[in-house]
Write a structure and sequence with these properties.
about 425 residues; Aldehyde Dehydrogenase, Chain A, domain 1; Aldehyde Dehydrogenase, Chain A, domain 2; 7-stranded parallel beta sheet; 4-stranded parallel beta sheet
Amino acid sequence: MTALASIKNQDIAALMRDMGIKARKAALELAQVPSEPKISALKAAAAKLRDNADAILAANAKDMEAGRAKGLTDALLDRLALDPARIEGMAAGIEAVAELPDPIGRELARWSPEHNGLDIARVSVPLGVIGIIYESRPNVTADASAMCIKSGNAAILRGGSESFHSSRAIFDCMAEGIAKAGLPDNAIQMIPTTDRAAVGEMLKLSDYIDVIVPRGGKSLIARITDESRIPLFKHLEGLCHTYVHASANPQKAVDIVVNAKMRRVGVCGSTETILIDSSVAGRLLPRIAEALVAKGCELRGDDIAQSIDGHIKPATDEDWVTEYLDAIVSIKVVNGVTDAVNHINTYGSHHTDAIIAENAAATTTFMNGVDSGIVIVNASTQFADGGEFGMGAEIGISTGKLHARGPVGVEQLTSYKYIVRGTGQTRP
């Protein structure tokens, strides 16, 4: 805790400005680093994570103890917890990012206008400096660092107070690996304080940070949206829906719904509302309810759902707009696919929504109508993950529409510039 104590005696505004200056310098250098050194850096970082697994677990034990004392829910503690398998998963994820094609320097388009003969190319470049603000999940430290390095971006990381020790231990491994490969100093930096004032100062650094990626709950996102002078990749809450259409295969519906809700209740891809067609609710809802209750899930539903199954408690208007991140789900009986689409577009967070159906017309209506970053047919919403999309990892799920939407992978952390080659032309 000495680092925390000492930083409180410093000028946080000056600290953040200094980090911004260093990040900008590193970003300009990183943009020119070829692919191989970046690959070497990430592989070295993955090796450091494995070599220091015991130290990471010891740091995580401190965070878990503090989290229990603070009264964190089981779901939040699950997001915070690390074990050998999760550390190995982080290391493997970094290696997967390392092996992805380099997103920088790609020629996206090339043409020559007839009237001037110029050779014009659109080429991918890094965004520059990315600020990542996240809460309880320490694995974001590894994922975000790896993706920024791969895409040639410098990163400033601000983890939550709940995961401070875990994130710092992971960051130290990442920084050692990156330094070992000779990449620029300050390619990644972590804010060394949990003081909330640091976030406020970070959001003012529009001269140094090109984009902010917030990952957290409603209050964090609301604060960042209100205060930021920097463009955002918004990762809003995962208010995800699974709709069981009249044509759904019954066993497929049960299996998918249970997985979508209960595989990990604390992740943003967990289904929070089940919509079920009125024509099959009487025979399918009891099977789904029984399977969910057997897994320890609390059910809340509308009047029709309650009348069908006695396990279902009354839902309030608040339930339709709640991301539980817990073993609780709301259930609504709807009259067809259009009704389901309207409910999702009214109450959802534009994150991930799924339909279970064998009818092609219904799935087409759903896919075209639902206004979300990820729309899934006949699979669990828990596949809303960059790793599952073959991206190696993700820096978040963007629920906005500008620049990036859905899983934000290394390709989404790029912009482009135009390279124009002439042979002496002058414009008349």
